[in-house]
Amino acid sequence: MGGTVSALAAILDLSIASNVTDSALAYFLTADIFLLLCIGVYLILPRMEYASYYLNLIEARPDSSDDEGSEEKVDTSSSKTNSPPILPILKRVKVLAACLFYTFFISIIIFPTIAASIESVDKSSGSVWTNKFFTPITCFLVYNFADWSGRQITTWIQSPGPNSKILPTLVFLRTLFIPLFMFCNYQPRKHIYLVIFQSDVYPIIFITLMGLSNGYLGTLSMVYGPKVVPKELSEGTAIVMSFFLGLGLAIGAAFSSLVHLI
């Protein structure tokens, strides 16, 4: 959702701001406003009946002062500091971790390196849409909104299941997005000069499908991870899955630089 708000802010800025100074001031004031809102909500929260109930519940929890209780506390704290058993977790979630990694690996290769470099086929017309708003809307706004929508869909629909072979198949098929985007009006082109998709509709369709699939398949993989392991390993599994998500983004970002050689 944050990406969608940022994209809308950028489009609004392009429409209204007359110079860079006004844009910088607008973004700075926006950040200040949100900071003030967060501080206000933070101060109001303890006064709310719902929050007060749970805050008082924590404060009213009795402290065990006996030796047995203290030993249990020590054992609990020490167990929390232990690192999760990586190998047993990976054995159970290796497919889901690979799906999560590859989902974000493909997405970060394309977005924004390739997607933001796709120009309107009618750019020579000189219209405001093709020269000023095409990339902010078709790339950043559409992708971020589609990604957010894909994540929200998992609230109601969670299919295919964690053990289904369809999930890794769908994740792998996202590789096709790379040539699909490259055969749009991607500029500049160094070696491949063929533009197959001679319409602005195609990159919009592709970026929508990529955003939806990124949000949906990525969230499914992330949600399924802690569910396929014993309850005591769920927290460690979430950490492992987060690592593979970050790894996919990092390696994908490194590979995205190779796109400019095409």
TrEMBL record:
The keyword Hydrolase does not apply. It holds the Pfam family Nucleoside_tran. Keywords: Membrane, Transmembrane, Transmembrane helix, Transport. Residues 62-82 are annotated as: Disordered. Its main location: membrane. This is Equilibrative nucleoside transporter 3. GO terms for cellular component: Golgi apparatus; plasma membrane. It is found in: Membrane. The chain crosses the membrane at residues 27-45, 95-118, 166-186, 193-217, 237-261. InterPro entries: Eqnu_transpt, MFS_trans_sf. Belongs to the SLC29A/ENT transporter (TC 2.A.57) family. It comes from the Eukaryota. It is a multi-pass membrane protein. One of its GO terms (molecular function) is nucleoside transmembrane transporter activity.
